[in-house]
Specification:
β4 and β5 form a beta hairpin. This protein has one domain. The strands form two sheets. It has a six-stranded antiparallel β-sheet, with no helix packed on it. A two-stranded antiparallel ribbon has the order 4-5. It is built from no helices and eight strands. It is globular, with a radius of gyration of 13 Å. Helices cover 0% and strands 45% of the residues. The protein has 85 residues and is mainly β.
Length: 85
């Protein structure tokens, strides 16, 4: 896991798998039970500018298979995930 804070104190948190590949990036990351059911892929309802999540999956060769905007309408319901193949 890597955390970067910009000059305006906005945090971006990046999660990696055991092979060092990025599996999730959370922009404008906020911590705590108010924001997460399970971090980083199960957010709770939140404001539109909080905890913007992009998840990445890979095939066995390490190629990117999907990019997913997790809960893009920020209502805590994952049924609206936007998957790019």
């Amino acid at each position: 896991m890597e955390t970067v804070t910009d000059p305006k104190a906005v945090v971006t948190k990046t999660f990696f798998d055991a092979l060092g590949r990025r599996t999730a990036t959370v922009e404008n990351y906020l911590a705590g039970a108010n924001y997460w059911t399970v971090e980083p892929l199960s957010p709770k309802s939140r404001a539109a500018d909080e905890c913007r999540i992009t998840a990445t999956t890979y095939d066995m060769a390490g190629n990117t298979v999907t990019l997913t905007a997790v809960d893009p309408d920020h209502d805590g319901n994952l049924a609206d995930n936007q998957v790019t193949v």
